[in-house]
Amino acid sequence: MRTSGLLWPLVALAALLAVNVAARPSFVSVTVRDGHLYGSLVDILRNGAPTLLVALGMTLVIATRGIDLSVGAIAAIAGAVACTYIGASGDAGAAVVGMLLALLLCAVLGVWNGFLVSVLGIQPIIATLVLMTAGRGLAMLVTDGQIITVNNEAYSQVGAGFLVLPVSILISLGVFAALAVLTRRTALGLLVESVGINPEASRLAGVRSRTIVWTVYVFAALCACVAGLMITSNVNSTNANSVGLWIELDAILAVVIGGTSLAGGRFSLAGTLVGALVIQTLTTTVYNVGIPPQTIQVFKAAVVIAVCLMQAPKFRALLVRRRTPAAPAAATPAPATSEAGPR
What is the 3-state secondary structure (H, E, C) of 298-323? Predict the structure, then answer.
């Protein structure tokens, strides 16, 4: 666990849970009502499901030395397209068509990001900043600047439905499991890591680095799309200004807390899962303890800095060096003298 970098994120998660239990002893209680699980722990998993989805896509993007700042805007576009179509249709089966349209459009947006990065060679932070800026404007055009409300039972199941556990949790865990199998039981994970470590060497070795980069940006866009559908279906409405706002930052924080390096290369899906739980538990802790909600970003920054420092080898080595007392200097032996006098 120490070598994989999961120790300190798990310590941070345990500490946050302990604070919540101390503030409210019933925090860990889980009840069953009508065959559904309810409780604060279930709420953390449900509210953190969109962040986990976006963070999974962000993990692969970062593993290829990239970054995707447009996932929040893509989530807003997905919610706008689905809710606008469902609201205009009024048909019970419109939810499936609306979600498929959202997935198709978001896949095209992922292809656009991948094209800018892998084909044109634009820096990922600049290439995705374009869609981050223009994406919400596109979502506003789709909704005509209005808050769209829908009343569709099938659509509500995505974010608010239950199959013992909330459906959103099952979707996120399903994507996590499928991605873990693809990246750790096939060569895909090795190819992604090789592109992130050295793209030119990977290309010379026969790896289609351009295709790999293109694929991870499309996957990140699809994850953001599903996250946007979860968020909007949970409240049966969409607001292009607020859906997915700053979720890209939470996703990046979750990836960094999980131990994945922003320099690319090796990545940890388990670490991303723990990081997403830390981010959501921290938000829940702020509300439970009674801290003003507007200070959430400050506490997130403090926790991220603390966890990243404890993960840094240089910082840990510095702590060990300061705790270890200096060994006493050995006495310098006197130079040997000959018993015989000078000749």
Answer: HHHHHHHHHHHHHHCHHHHHHHHHHH
Which helix (H) or strand (E) covers residue 106, if one does? helix 94-114
The 10s digit of each residue's pLDDT in 230-274 is 999 999 999 999 999 989 999 998 998 888 888 888 899 999 999
What DSSP string describes 71-85?
Answer: HHHHHHHHHHHHHHH
Element housing 284 (H / E): helix 269-289
How many residues belong to the chain? 343
Least confidently predicted of 8-22, 66-80, 224-238: 8-22
Contact 224, 72 (CB under 8 A): yes
What one-character DSSP code corresponds to residue 164? Answer: S
User: Which residue is it, tokens 């596109």?
Assistant: 138
Q: Are strands 148-149 and 237-238 parallel, antiparallel or unpaired?
A: antiparallel
Distance, CA of 68 to CA of 251 (rounded, Å): 10
Q: For the chain, what is the largest distance between any 2 Cα atoms, rounded to a whole number of angstroms? A: 117
DSSP-assigned beta bridge partners for residue 149? 237
**Tokens linked to 77:** 């576009």
- 37: three-class secondary structure by DSSP: strand
Output the six-digit token pair for 3.
């070598």
- Can you say how many angstroms the Cα of residue 296 is from the centroid of all Cα atoms in its chain? 17
- The CA R_g of the chain, rounded to the nearest whole Å, is 25
Burial of 259: CB neighbours in 10 Å, binned 0-12, 13-18, 19+? buried
* Structure token digits, residue 20: 């919540």
